[in-house]
Amino acid sequence: MTATTARPRIDQDHWQQRLGELAERHQVVGATLAILRLGNGSADDELIEAATGVLNKATGVEVTTDSVFQIGSITKVWTATLVMQLVEEGRIDLDAPLIEVLPELQLSDPDVAKQVTMRHLLTHTSGIDGDIFTDTGRGDDCLEKYVSALADAPQNHPLGATFSYCNSGFSLAGRVIEVLTGKTWDAVLRERIIEPLELTHTSTLPEEAILHRAAVGHISPDPEQESHSVKSWVMPRSVGPAGLINATARDLTSFARLHLRGGLTPGGTAVLSAASTADMQAEHADLPDKYSLGDSWGLGWIRFDWNAERLYGHDGSTFGQNAFLRVLPSQGLAVALLTNGGHAGDLYRDLYREVFAELADVTVADQLEPPEQAPEVELARYVGSYERSSVTTEVFERGGGLVMRVIPTGAIAEASGATTRELELHPVEQGLFAARPPDQESWMAVTFYSLADGSAYVHYGARANPKRS
């Protein structure tokens, strides 16, 4: 590691100013930023924090660096870390059928229930429909009840056939942790990660989060209207292992430090082995879409290729809140950004482009954009209706091009305030299109492809959507 004296210190005032300016530009309600850079030892580590905006438009309470936000799906990496601890203890094998631990497991496909493994869950390749947010109550048995309800969950794709982001799989993983330890997922997380890392502002339950300055999410169903606070603050407790951690940006970088330090706490205690942290960062699954998030998946971690620089990290989205974590292991750099409304994705791209360029001389990967000259592609082959739990996607021709109508369905759509929207699909190449949501400056990728058995899918938002008609 380069000696800290050989490089300028991170300028806290500069990044405070840039966070405020960019958040205002992108109409982000509130945000916190933490930048961690490792030194020769824990005592030499650099950490700067910044905050801007308000926690809730209705109250006007200002965001501070001690404010807690929902980190959403970044929680999945914490759950994966717990799993790897249990692997090291010999309590579970990543490639053993889960029914060895959960003999009562029932899924809509009995063969999948017999064969699905923890590796499938951690790499989002189980095929269990991923956006099932069944509310099974606030009791300590919520995950047990949730897993029982998975018997009715559709199978999105054949086991191991492709990648599709799967919240359901991480709730299932959380239940496995409970069975192996005899404690709730929340208690295991506190005992094995939160307390060893001495994280004072990290929790999983709303009654814990309310003890701190807690952010409220904001949404705007109409891009032309100002955002407003959400009606539901938190998702059901059964979603916990997939996305219910609340934390400060500082605590999030402390978790990243654990992985940068090969599983060691600042005091030198081993929470996880160096071999396991390396395995979590290694490639375990390829992605049909290499533009929306990373280019591959580890065990919990998303892997990013930024112009030949390898990073890992994760994003998180809840009701009106978005979180971003990127880790550059070659330079010991971790950057966490937490937000509660507005064009958070645009803020992330602009801010992280500056941070990594100035502090690490690393260029963020370019976003997918349609070429100036649209290529000739066959459109009719993509027309149809695609469906998974919580979303119906209709693709049709209009005006010589393709349009994608995204229709949110189910209880989670109602709770989040999501509304139907139409996106024009601009061809990049055969099977690959770019679309720009009306509330964003950047483009998203839409990929059409077929599995080995010939079944057709459209992949966007990190999820595979099977064609139904």
Automatic annotation (TrEMBL):
Keywords: Hydrolase
Domain of life: Bacteria
EC number: 3.1.1.103
Stored InterPro entries: AmpC-like (IPR050491), Beta-lactam-related (IPR001466), Beta-lactam/transpept-like (IPR012338)
Name of protein: Serine hydrolase domain-containing protein
SUPFAM superfamilies per the UniProt record, alphabetical: beta-lactamase/transpeptidase-like
Transmembrane segments: none
Protein species of origin: Jatrophihabitans lederbergiae
